[in-house]
């Protein structure tokens, strides 16, 4: 599969990508644990069918020390015992926040209560922002059909 459009080969798209990446830095530098950020990004990307982002988040999480067992169980997190209660709350928020167009009622009060139990206000701000940002990134890549398997960390450095 080849991409329909080279987002990094176009001036307008590259300018947008740099600003988009800057927004991501705010989240990366937040007090939301990096592991949680990786799991949330991976789960939303799986739901949205963004192969490029799944590839990217698995590779980045692996490089950061995440285990293959946990990464392979993200899609089945409800049935897996390898995630903390805080991670489970974040994954639930990621799913409910991603499935807004699937006749889903949005983020449930139960999920929100679990998130409030495990995260402070700054972490929640980062978590909500991350769900919005990764969904936007998924849409960019799915629309242009960026293929999976081509991501390298140097790609992110080229945008920043």
From TrEMBL:
SUPFAM superfamilies attached to this UniProt entry: AhpD-like
GO molecular function, a single term: peroxiredoxin activity
Chain ranges of the Carboxymuconolactone decarboxylase-like domain: 25-96
InterPro entries reported in the protein's UniProt record: AhpD-like (IPR029032), AhpD_core (IPR004675), CMD-like (IPR003779)
Protein name in UniProt: Alkylhydroperoxidase AhpD family core domain protein
Organism classification: Bacteria, Bacillati, Actinomycetota, Actinomycetes, Pseudonocardiales
